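Myosin IH, Ficedula albicollis. Tokens?
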Amino acid sequence: MEGALIARDKVGVQDFVLLDSHTSEAAFLNNLRKRYQENLIYTYIGSLLVSVNPYQELDIYTVTQMQLYRGVNFFELPPHLYAIADNAYRVMCSEYNNHFILISGESGAGKTEASKKILQYYAVTCPTTEQLQTVRDRLLLSNPVLEAFGNAKTLRNDNSSRFGKYMDIQFDFKGAPVGGHILSYLIEKSRVVHQNHGERNFHIFYQLLEGGDKDLLCWLGLERNPQKYTYLIQGRCAKVFSINDKNDWKIVRKAFSIIDFTEKDIEHLFGIVASVLHLGNIQFEEDSNGHAIIRDGSQIKWISKLLGAHLSILQEALTHRKIEARSEEVLSPLNVDLAFYARDAVAKAIYGRTFTWLVNKINGSLANKDSTQKTVIGLLDIYGFEVLDTNSFEQFCINYCNEKLQQLLIEMTLKAEQEEYELEGIEWEPIPYFNNKIICDLVEQKHKGIISILDEECLRPGEATDLSFLEKLEEKVGDHAHFVTRKLADQKTRKSIDWVDFRLLHYAGEVTYCAVGFLEKNNDLLYRNLKEVLCNSKNNIIRECFLLSELDNRRRPETVATQFKNSLTSLIEILMSKEPSYIRCIKPNENKEPGKFDDFLIRHQVKYLGLMEHLRVRRAGFAYRRKYELFLQRYKCLCPATWPHWHGPAVEGVERLIKHIGYKPEEYKLGRTKIFIRFPKTLFATEDAFEYRKHLLISRLQAKYKGFLGKRAYQKKRKAAIKLEACWRGALARRAAKKRTWAVQTIRKFINGFINRKKPLCQENRDFVRLSQYHYLMKLRDHLPKNVLDQSWLQPPSILEETSEMLRKMCMRNLVRKYCRGLTAERKGQLQQKVVTSAVFSGKKEGYLESLSQPFLETRLKENDLNPKVLQLIRGENIKYVTPVIKYDRNGFKARERLLVLTQSSAYVVEMAKIKQKIEYSTLKGISTSNLSDGIVVIHVPEDNKQKGDVILQCEHIFEVVTKLCILANKQNLIKVVKGSLRFRVGSGKEGTMVFTVGPEPQVFKDKTGQLTVVRAQLSRGRQLELPPWISICREHSPPSWEPRRD
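Tokens:
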């Protein structure tokens, strides 16, 4: 253990068992002092933790520290509160038993803070879910609520618990906190109406005044200044620098919302708190008859409003007492003293029962509805031993409680351990210790104890007073060694005891109690008419606290001391049924100063806490003991001979087991029914081996189980697959059969359709025809002509011939349309001329086919090539075409080079700068040309004085010239293609003949007969060119816009 410490943690020893002088009290205190001065506030005595209050914030409670101590063996890390908490948690989870952590010490020693730190540790480190987060938050936030209503500043502690609290934290089988339950013990109700000098009332009063918003205080009728309220100023320290009431108020308000308080609950709760303050401000005075009357009615009006009680009835109940005389009820007026007593009794009763209601409400929010078995860890945070300047009934009960807890510690550690060694036959030298059972018996023994005597005085008829109670004590327990009064004391002691005091010699030291008020506080009676007012209250909380059934119960309620004794007995029974862990808290000084170590004060606490005796027992004893059956059951897996089952006696099995593990003789002892292990490290080594072996076994079990699950899943899947395959094969077979049936029917239907295919469309051949049409159309879709020149077309079936022809025409028309739309204006004009040429010359004149591939030009000569004089002569006319030609004159047919100029309205034969002849298109009689490729064209003109005769021209581009001429003249029908010869007019009344022939060489001459002979050279023999198909297509599908026109 020491090897794991860092250098700072080696100041002193961290376990008192390791002290060389373990019997020396001086060595004990010296080790405690060394560690405290280094802020090492925790030290072990075996498994018991000693905690010294540092009176300052230390950086040892972080989440990192929590994770560091989580799941670590007890002595592997330096002593800490978290180690105690984690050890209890781990043992609870592994052995499924219940635990409790007993936190004890004087008031101001740090018990409340220790319980809060343990609760925070479980909240952070335990596994949780989103659903359990609410439970965890409620467990944490129940503390500030209970502290606000149950804690107060005392002379020794600024946050002293004025009630006892035992909290059970419930865990499920996974170790997650799933719920909780709180038991409260004897809240100090007298503090509500009275505080000693330097003390305060409960925190909630100051938090409400300091932190409550203005509207809330106004609704409650309160002012922010605590000096205005009688119940808050008796201790004369309403403001404390170490307490931030405003911030604490915010935490309490937040806690209320998380702990599931409704707004109505909160409203009624604060109404009760405010009504207590208003009760304290009610003042009484005597009337003329000596009866008590309320001096100022403003406070009681607020109380009536907040508690929902009738004003006049409440006022009467505070100043009168209802007395039953036989069958009659009589109202008896109270004097001033009794009125103040009634007022304070109401305040105490209201606050005390409201606190009980508050605990029950918190328990309701923490309750786990799941009925499965749970393990618990209990936290006992109860008031510490108190010795004040004036000790009253409350201190008597508190110190009695501490005596009982000390007795529990003795029973479960010192006494029980030594008795166990003797019973088990373990060699043992008894260690003396003080057994405080004698003091517990003095207080609680039936008929002879102080509580029984007190109850007798409270219940006996006649005038019982505190002095008569003291006399009874002297009479019945006067001879007890731990009881002293002034009358029974010796001369020296008598000076420190008053006549109304008695002194008890507690385990923690002598305490002198003032008997004044014992009977009153033990009775804790509330006048019947006051109880009736509260039972009929409209405040829901008050109505739940004061039930109407109480009014029907005529039995006298148990006294406070008896109730407290019974609840303590129940608590001890609860604790005795659980495995204990102990934290002993020590207060280092009376002034709450950090770093100050008061040897005298601490020595006193070490003595009465029995720490030296505990150390001696732990040093001489054994750290661990367990019944053979339980030890064997837990660790049998570490030895092959005992695993998985041992069939002999358990003690023999344990012997075989520890021999296999390798225990040394000094490390253990075997008793009659148990094995005792001396050193913690021996147990830790065994536990580590068990954990390792457990993981191996679990891995093997998991592998087997996973194999089993895998096999079961495989078999299930295989069975399902076989079934699916069978079903699927059936489905496929049915589908195939259905498909074959359909195929047979379809084939039969189409065979029948084929047989009747030539019949008109009917039921027998409809499907076949439709299929034929579909297939033809689908095939045709992929074999359509790509352009207008493509003459291919898919051969249709006979039934679709008409449709096919319509589709062919539509397709061709569409191709032509697409082709035409893609033409430029210039190209379109050329094609229009070519169409005209085709209409005139196709199949009539040689050379036509050769001319098809030669596009017509707009003009052969440009306008700039003409002589300016000619241009001047024909100005005003738009020149369309100019080409060189050879003109044969009428006299001798001599060839003359000329230009043929075509305008919009006329044709001109031009020689250099002269116009030799003008031919208007309107007078044009005809145009003739031969069927041979000789280039001769004759323009026939009318017989008039202007024209000398027909014009005979020879030009290279005969088709172009004739086409442009006929288009401009718009006289295509006047063009003649002649064979052999033609007649032409030479002059007025004269005609000539032109003969066309074929010769070896081309020539034009006048023969002997005077005729004009035109010879065309012979063509080589070969296949005659056919007309390109696009020409006929264009003819066939040309739109009307292709008709020749004159521009």
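The first strand starts at residue 42 and ends at 45.
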